[in-house]
Write a structure and sequence with these properties.
This protein is α+β, with helices and mostly antiparallel strands and about 180 residues long. It is built from five helices and twelve strands. It has a single domain, classed as OB fold (Dihydrolipoamide Acetyltransferase, E2P) (Beta Barrel). The strands form two sheets. Strands 1, 4, 5, 6, 7 and 8 form a six-stranded mixed beta sheet that branches. The radius of gyration is 16 Å and the shape is globular. One of its GO terms (cellular component) is cytosol. It comes from Niveibacterium umoris.
Length: about 180
């Protein structure tokens, strides 16, 4: 089982897409809500397909894909947030991200309903995360982006896709209830 070549944290910092006055985010929809991921975490976006399911895994781990000969785990973000698994539709895609794990960047795919646009966001447009009222765990939120008088939830990918936390959840025998009890 091969994996994509790991990238060092130093290489990732060199690739960051920050602008002088702000940052860039990829926006996408999930269950009718708009979310954003900092662009520096994104490696590529691919069409949904070629997913191999793995028996006895929690709902949030939908399976693995073969990406140019490398095995990449695919996480269903909706299920990770304690919601029903994503229904696959025409615009469903997989966003390939790089998550820092033990000083190395590990590739992970996330299923989203549809990718929207890339936003250049000024630091003043990013509000602190709310302490209550969000439909996902507070530590999953980096902040709220004020975009056209609406708020877009900017995700903290290191927390959402914490490899250690997901591994411990998988180690619980794939119990979806264990995860659901940690929900919003």
């Amino acid at each position: 089982m091969s994996t994509l070549p790991a990238t060092t944290a130093a290489n990732r910092i060199a690739r960051q897409q920050d602008t002088p006055g702000g940052r860039q985010f990829l926006t996408f929809t999930l269950g009718g809500e708009m979310f954003a991921i900092p662009l520096e975490h994104i490696r590529e976006i691919i069409e949904f397909g070629g997913l191999t399911e793995i028996p006895m895994m929690p709902d949030f781990l939908r399976g693995v894909i073969n990406l140019r000969g490398a095995v990449v785990p695919v996480i269903d973000l909706a299920a990770r947030f304690g919601r029903a698994p994503t229904t696959i539709a025409r615009r469903t895609c997989i966003v390939i991200l790089e998550v820092l794990q033990e000083e190395q960047l590990m590739p992970l795919g996330v299923i989203v309903d549809a990718v929207s646009e890339v936003l250049a966001v000024e630091h003043s447009q990013i509000e602190p995360r709310p302490s209550f009222g969000a439909k996902i765990r507070a530590e999953f939120i980096e902040g709220m982006i004020n975009h056209h008088d609406k708020f877009v939830v900017a995700l903290d990918i290191q927390h959402v896709l914490s490899v250690d936390e997901m591994a411990s959840l998988i180690g619980m025998g794939g119990s979806e209830m264990a995860f659901a009890n940690q929900g919003a």
